[in-house]
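[09:14] KT: can someone run the structure on this one? pasting the chain below
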Amino acid sequence: KELLLKKQSKSRNFSISILISMIPAVFVGLFFEKSINSLFNGNLILVGSMLYVTAFLLLFSDFLKMKKNEIGYKNSFIIGLAQAIAILPGISRSGATIATAVIIGIDREKAAKFSFIMVIPLIFGSMIKSIIDNGLNPESFDLISLLLGFISAFLTGLLACKWMILLVKKSKLYYFSTYCFVLGTTIIYYTLSNGL
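[09:31] RB: done, structure tokens below
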């Protein structure tokens, strides 16, 4: 009975942590949606710069000595802040959340799993918001395409998450860091050389 109560308590705390992690992104999405969307219009220098930020975060977290902190409510909010900042173009959501979790001392495997799970409610919320914004009119959106898109994204994300967990456990985040740095440099060079 004690074991069962412990498991239930753990599950409840984890669920609350997921909900807490959503708060910053939901706040940004509700109150700054138009401002955020405007940043995606031809802001290639910003994209390249934010890729540098992602590269630095990943590189920094990869060489840290492991601490032993639990996710908890406070840390889940901090990871949620990273997720909210990752709404900016060029910042990898999973990269930012995993790196932030590792920096504050969360076990690498737990960090990767939490990063994957914490975005699922936001995806559902975004789908529901899109449906409501379209006036709940079935003709204004293709429900089958929406569901198929979600399922395929979920399955792809699941495979990517398993692969990411393996790399994170082996401290291989610098691979992604190098990729982000090269891509960011390419984007900035291309933009400046073409006067965009």
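[09:33] KT: thanks! The chain has eight helices and no strands.
[09:34] RB: yep, looked fine to me
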